[in-house]
Amino acid sequence: PGTGKSMAGRALENSLRLVHEFSEFLVSPEDSPSELKRPLLGRRSCRWSSPVRLSRFRTIARATSTTINDVLLACVAAAVKPRLGMTPEQLDEAVMHAAVPVDIRARLPDGVRPEEGEPGNCFGTVFVPLPVDGESALERLFRIKHETRKLKKSWQPGLAWGLTSCAALIPEPGRKPLADLFFRKASAVVSNVPGTPDTRYLAGCEITEQMFWVPQAGDIGLGVSIVSYGGQVQFGVVADEAVMADPAAFVEDCLKELEQFPG
Predict the structure, then answer these.
(1) Taking the model in full, what pTM does it have?
(2) Most buried in the list 19, 60, 123, 255, measured by CB within 10 Å?
(3) Do residues 249 and 241 lie in contact, with contact meaning Cβ atoms separated by under 8 Å?
(4) pLDDT tens digits, residue range 40-58?
(5) Fold category of 31-260 in CATH
(6) DSSP output for 20-56
(7) What is the tens place of the pLDDT at every residue in 188-197?
(8) Looking at residue 262, what is its pLDDT?
(9) Could you give the CA distance from residue 221 to residue 217 in angstroms, rounded to a whole number?
(10) Full DSSP string of 105-117
(11) Do the strands 123-129 and 201-202 form a parallel or antiparallel pair, or are they unpaired?
(12) In what residue span(s) does the O-acyltransferase WSD1 C-terminal domain sit (predicted)?
């Protein structure tokens, strides 16, 4: 009986936490109007950076007690900042998020979670605040670290996965407003895919680089892809021409931010 009460108590606690986090997400402010929120033209351009050794990011992460992912997101935040079309005063008040897909396979309950080795597109989304008002590279990095630690403990990825999985069951009149709610709370999609550390070959030819492109999500016109492969990292960007005229400069700014870090 004691065990049953304990399990019931945990279930109630988890349910209340779920409702609380979902309510917080619903009432959280939408992203501020910016150049990244302009109506899309439907014409997209893509560019990718030259490779950077993964060890460079690892050294920065160790020197600052952060993660490689924190460093990558800080680079993106720095590159986004000058492209918002905001004054310093507006930046101080700006609300800006990146929608970041995360793997939630390990969090899924038995019966829902795919078996080991079985394919399955099990990902949720976290909305990471981008510190575009940060005055230095280290400030942006440590604020990213603080936010990602909070999100790792939250139910936000599971909520996003659950709503996405149930979208087909929602009547059409309610489906679009729900999707729009998500899209209004982010100005970019940033996806980080870790690849194999070993060099791969195709038909006897060495694959020197790999890249992927972030699919467009609703009215979000900026997608940033980050891929590690063979001990190197590359940034890629695909952007609607309405929100970014020069994606090549964007990826270069991501790399320039590395020069501001110790290590």
Answers:
(1) 0.82
(2) 60
(3) no
(4) 999 999 999 999 999 999 9
(5) Chloramphenicol Acetyltransferase (3.30.559)
(6) HHHHHHHHSPPPPP-GGGSPP-S-EEEEEPPPEEHHH
(7) 999 999 889 9
(8) 80
(9) 8
(10) GGGSPTTTSPPTT
(11) unpaired
(12) 120-260
With 0-12 CB in 10 A as exposed, 13-18 as middle and 19+ as buried, what is 51? middle
CA–CA distance, 256 with 63 (Å, rounded to integer):
18
Q: List, in sequence order, every beta strand (DSSP E) within the chain.
A: 44-48, 52-53, 97-103, 123-129, 188-194, 201-202, 205-206, 222-229, 232-240
Residue 13: exposure state from Cβ atoms within 10 A (0-12, 13-18, ≥19): exposed
- Rounded Cα gap, residues 48 and 69, in angstroms: 18
Cβ–Cβ under 8 Å, residues 15 and 66: no
Residue 190 to residue 188: CA distance in whole angstroms? 6
pLDDT at 93 over 70: yes
Beta-sheet pairing, 188-194 with 222-229: parallel
Tokens of residue 219, six digits: 């009215």
Distance CA 262, CA 60 (A): 6
Q: Which residue in 36, 29, 4 sits closest to 185, CA to CA?
A: 29
Spatial separation of the C-alpha atoms in residues 68 and 261, rounded to whole Å: 13
CA distance 122 to 213: 18
Residue 208: name the closest of 55, 48, 45, 71 by CA.
48
CA distance 133 to 140: 8
